[in-house]
Amino acid sequence: MKSLATLDLQYAHRFYGFKGEAQYLHGHTGILTIEVEDTINDGVNMVFPCNEIQKTAWEVLKNFDHALVLREDDPLLPAILDVYEKQGIRNGHPSNIMTGPAFKTELATAYPECRLVVTKETMTVEAMIKIVYDLLKDKLNISKITFSSGVNKASEEYTPTGTKARCPLCGIALDENGVCPKCGYKHK
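Above: the chain's sequence. Below: its structure in token form.
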């Protein structure tokens, strides 16, 4: 069985080197749907609480919300950083409160202090799916990710391996010590 969660992301990007409208800096509302597959957890009669899927995903994905996403070789990148430096916001600002933890993977690097994500590939809907899966594959038993942005939409299916140990009281994943980070339940 599956549990599904949806998140909205507002971001700006461009397709550097692309011949067409997308070569210009522009913004989108992206809709991300994550499907998590596992057995029904007997204690709470669900696969995984949808609000917990959202919380788990949002912890890292909020770095994409109201952010600029540029490819690492885009000549706009140094110019943007220079402007941010001159404005005094490159290293953060008190109004920048929607930041997640910085991350660096093979596909993307998040700089939450300046609302910037730098990607290896052009930020298409397909690239976003690859990035999201890479960030969340160890936290959730993902069976499918769908991402739509404007008129563009893509999805990818995955084969979850094993099950995640979950709390019988609230349904969320137990930590590496068998303890529920939400309610404190300890697996015996």
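The two ends are 26 Å apart (CA to CA).
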